[in-house]
Design brief:
By secondary structure, the protein is mainly alpha-helical. The protein contains 4 helices and 2 strands.
């Protein structure tokens, strides 16, 4: 066996013996004092406190008697028909479309016509949805909202 590998073997053997000797030292001689260690349960002097304090439970609620319930299928259902149901998402899209129509009408009268006459104050025109002056931000906003109106919004999946 070469000298280097013998030296390595002796080094590892002495390292292993040192680990075994150090591992003989126990945790018993170390005490952690303080409220934090007592709460966590690391303090050695904390004795079990017996039964934990629990609130009195509410009694079980018994179901009503089944004799008071009507027979299934008897009587009329008080549920609205599908035509009566108000869809808040649909109403929001309709109100958004109505606001966009109002914005277009306002901008045509108060922005495009004065701008074609050469009126410099037309840039200050602001309709129900904001400024009539086109910018990159309004273009991006229209592009983003058009995707949501087509059913593409809030969908992170990619189509192939």
């Amino acid at each position: 066996m070469p000298l280097k590998s013998f030296a390595k073997a002796c080094l590892f053997a002495s390292f292993g013996a040192a680990l075994l000797a150090v591992s003989g030292c126990g945790y018993d001689g170390v005490q952690l004092n303080g409220k934090i260690f007592e709460v966590v349960g690391l303090s050695g002097n904390a004795a079990p406190q017996g039964e934990p304090k629990m609130r009195v439970r509410q009694p079980l609620v018994m179901p009503p008697e089944t004799g008071a319930l009507p027979q299934p299928g008897s009587g009329s259902a008080d549920q609205p028909s599908l035509a009566e149901i108000q869809d808040p998402d649909r109403q929001k899209r309709l109100s958004q479309a109505d606001l966009q129509r109002q914005q277009d009408e306002y901008c045509k009268v108060h922005y495009e016509e004065p701008l074609s006459r050469g009126d410099a104050s037309a840039d200050a025109a602001s309709g129900p949805l904001g400024s009539c002056h086109p910018s990159i931000l309004t273009g991006v906003k229209k592009w983003m909202t058009s995707g949501k109106q087509n059913g593409d919004g809030d969908d992170d999946s990619q189509t192939e």
